[in-house]
Write a structure and sequence with these properties.
The C terminus is likely disordered. The chain is built from 22 helices and no strands. The protein is mainly α and about 525 residues long. The longest helix is centred in the first third of the chain and has 40 residues.
Amino acid sequence: MSQQILLVLGGIGLFLFGMKVMTEGLRDAAGGRLRRFLARFTTTPLRGTVSGAAATALIQSSSATTVMTVGFVGAGLITFPHALGVLYGANIGTTVTGWMITLLGFKLHLGTIALPGLFAASLMVLLGRGHLARAGRILAGFSLLFVGLDMMQDAAGTFGETLTPDRLPQGTLAAQVKLALAGLAITLVMQSSSAAIAVALVFLGSGAISFDQAAAMVIGTNIGTTVTAMLASIGGSRTMRQTAVANLLFNVGTAILAFPVLLLGGGWLASVARHAGDQTALVLFHTAFNVAGTLIFLPVSHHFAGFVERLIPETDSSLTRGLDEALLGDEGAAMDAVHVSLRRVAVVTFAAMGRALAVPSDTRALSALPAKTGPALEQIGAFASRIRIPEKRPGARDRNAALLHQLDHLNRLTERLERKAMIAVVLEDAELSRPARYFGLLLSRTAQAGRTGALADRLTWLAGLVQHRSRRHRRAVLLHEHVGLITVNEMFDRTDAMRWLNRVTHHAERMAYYDRQAEMPEGGHAPGNAG
């Protein structure tokens, strides 16, 4: 018996490892296209449900879909009610794993050809590159999954005398709750609801547990997968905590719905089991109560979102509140967080500069700026340095480079703004005051828009104008000093002010350029010149 237990554990281990390898391969294959699909298609809770189900079914990971969604909400690409739709869909999409196990593993017995498939996958990974190697990893994960499933089936077949339905709770609601808690515990231990459902399917097929017992365990696995996310969200950003709580409440709600169906709909489920088999009926039950829960929650998504937002209100007003370490597992979501944090710092900086260059000039916000933005820029830099971009994603590398350029220009702009005395000199100069005031107006409008790249084209034009006018004006200032119209000190003040204005407009223009480049689809490029 001890050998059979080891075989079951080994089968579960192979299944988990195969799921991980396959999921990573599918996610790499989807790349930035999946992110763009989610961000663009999720415009309503209903469309979010469809896109969440499709994305989760494609990459076989509801947690990866959830992390991407959190990044989108933090970056302002989608609203929280729309994100709830993605969560509903992710719960439906994750049931595809059960269908794959039942139809391919139990019906078609793909485990018999999984070993040759694993051999072919190893050759593809070792000898191939690019798409071939990626396909090899997907095939390797797929093969390991079914090899592990076969091991579990073979070992579970010998448990018939030791483990029987009579030895487990059954019949009453209290018994079903106990079994649901067992399913929850198994999911927490394995850190995978798919693996827990696979175990339930295997033991159901061997006769070790009854259909009702397996169904109660599946309800527990549905809740168990959200507990893991809840634990991971502790200490995380508000968006991460809201998402985890919403997912928990949704899954608890669907579980409450599923128990009466299991108790009162036993005849219908038994009929399905007789015609299609116990395992198919179990997967159908899993899918059905997730779909039913979605149909109930979907019409009230905005009210549900409002309830969760009141439950977890915003307590962090810092400029870097979206930099959640949990997002580092998904480079796209991490870059979204860096992007939105850079925008917040840039908006505060541009607003302070706009007031300083206005009529009348008000430099109070500019004086308070270093204490507010300095620590934020340090946090953003530290977070950005921890983002790891896979070599096979050049588009993601381009976007990350744009964010780092934006951070660099923002740092240099902050340093130059410490020389506030230059503002008075620029505004008093007849040649420079007009472009300087227009520059301040553009900065104020950009801050109001909340996007650094909102007026990128105008800033590019103005930076060129200031550069041209500064070169011409510098010669005039030198000539004025030469003929005695101004003092040497005045000459130095004016040339320093010209240089300051030239560099400040350059940094602001570059920030706007890179902001617009970073918000484009991975691999895209905004018009303009890098620098």
